[in-house]
């Protein structure tokens, strides 16, 4: 990792992600709601970074019902992707319109440095994948969406993942049929939303040859399987899309309520990231070494 950003090019990140899908090893992609969180994901040693559409919507104070724009998603995705040397996979909802819009989505996200995206087969406006009342488009319409996306791709290593929400609407058998059709249309990775238990994941793995992505989101319809369980089943990627936002927002709410009731944050210090740890994560010392004429204050004895 270089001082000002990633030391690895977008093309190299994509090649790494493409190779990882064929490695036989489960790739763990926690969600990051900011570039700073992405830096922590990388430092801890995960395989990639995920940018959730639900999280991006929530961060803007909006529900996950298709209100965000391609510009907002591209901008935030670019910032997060640039923060680390890890490949970043982003949620592109339904492609922000008709097949031609899906093609433009691929172009812009590729230019923004993302390693891949996923497109889903819901109708517009989409809903959060773990809500009831979803509807999916015909398989033929999603195939057109995917073919347009694949045709727009210039870097062959840019990963196009197809998400299907059909399991909870039409049944797992129909979702498997869709997955096969989506793979035939050029999808590199299949994401089946809202499977319930290990048997569902095993059923899907046995039926589909394409690399598979599992969504381990909390408080939804899926049982939370461990990375070991998913690896044993044969999944290729697991995402934890909203985990970091939920952790952060719970801590923020607890802290704000404490300040409101106690009139001070002094009782919360042991629950906070220390300033010195933040500086370490941001590599303040390296900035000092890079140009001591600009950055010229010491870190010793920093107060919390």
TrEMBL record:
The keyword Magnesium applies. The keyword Magnesium applies. GO terms for biological process: propionate catabolic process, 2-methylcitrate cycle. Its cofactor is Mg(2+). One of its GO terms (molecular function) is methylisocitrate lyase activity. It is an enzyme of class 4 (lyase). Keywords: Lyase, Magnesium, Metal-binding. Its EC number is 4.1.3.30. It catalyses: (2S,3R)-3-hydroxybutane-1,2,3-tricarboxylate = pyruvate + succinate. Pathway: Organic acid metabolism; propanoate degradation. CDD domains: ICL_PEPM. NCBIfam families: prpB (TIGR02317). Catalyzes the thermodynamically favored C-C bond cleavage of (2R,3S)-2-methylisocitrate to yield pyruvate and succinate. Belongs to the isocitrate lyase/PEP mutase superfamily. Methylisocitrate lyase family. This is Methylisocitrate lyase.
